[in-house]
Amino acid sequence: MDYAKLWFVLWAVLWTGYFALDGFDLGVGFSGWLAADGAEERGLVFSSIGPFWDGNEVWLITAGGATFAAFPPVYAGLFSWLYPAVLLILLSLIVRGAALEFRGKVRSPEWKSFWERAAAVSSFLSALLLGVTFGNIFRGLEIGPGGYSGTFSGLLNPYSLLTGLLLCAFFFFHGQLWLSFKTSGPVAGRAAKLAGAAWYALLPLFAVFTAWSCTATRLAGNFLARPMLLALPALLIAALITSRLLLLRGSPGRAFLASFAAIALFSLTGFAGIYPALLPSRLDPAFSLTVYDSASGAYTLKLMTAAALLLLPVAIACQVWVHRLFRTPLTAEELQKSGMY
Hints:
With 341 residues, this protein is mainly alpha-helical. The protein has helices spanning 3-31, 39-49, 53-56, 58-70, 72-81, 83-102, 109-139, 152-155, 158-182, 186-216, 219-225, 231-248, 252-274, 291-294, 298-325, 332-338, and strands at 143-144, 147-148, 277-279, 289-290. The termini are far apart.
């Protein structure tokens, strides 16, 4: 078995799991207030993600750990070449986690309002910066014979910013769909309308991103060389259309699953486009960090595969159990009884 190739697939799957799972609570974090009118409804919004958000971030930790263990040069490159961007992402996630936890510790309206704003800003920055980072990876980094020669300002190029905005649009849509079936009453109704409006903003952003990616990056190369990979973007478009149709038919829960599939397929499409590189070079593909020259030894990867086969199903089962336990929509009455709003 080629363990290096296997771990490229697992690496892509772990990042995909993070985007698709944490995407809805990041979306709720920065857009949920639009569906709420008053402190009680904002409490409903934030309580809807309470049991889930920290479990979703396990996928981020696992993806980072897998990068460190399976592809050490890639991990070193990310945390040295992209250090300012990665540091800002981590700070945003720290503030977001603190905001979600501290919001309910004091019953003062001013206290809650401050942490709600902190959660909104940090959630948006997290989503935007994650998109910018992976936009630069899709575009290719300035890696040459002397190493990385890029600058922080160079990371904020138009293509990467578009990728960041596209990811925010995906998460906005995903988060509003979550609220439309995980809450009840006026909040759910407003969220469904916002999700419908967000879909029409998401579609042109996705179209521009696709066209730009075909001309400004090397992502299309693998799809032209391996036509069977075209199934990924085709399924992505089908999932986007299906999510809107299901929402129109009054099935927000199923629309959420279609949106989940769309985000996962978007991520997998990007990783399929850069293969075999993990950190592609924009200057010359010969300087890219690839599966072949960045992977750990075969024995290390073999041990990691055994650990993944044992632990990954446990992590998935835990999340399935949590979602099943809290599967019913949250109501204002339940929130008032708990005293958490």
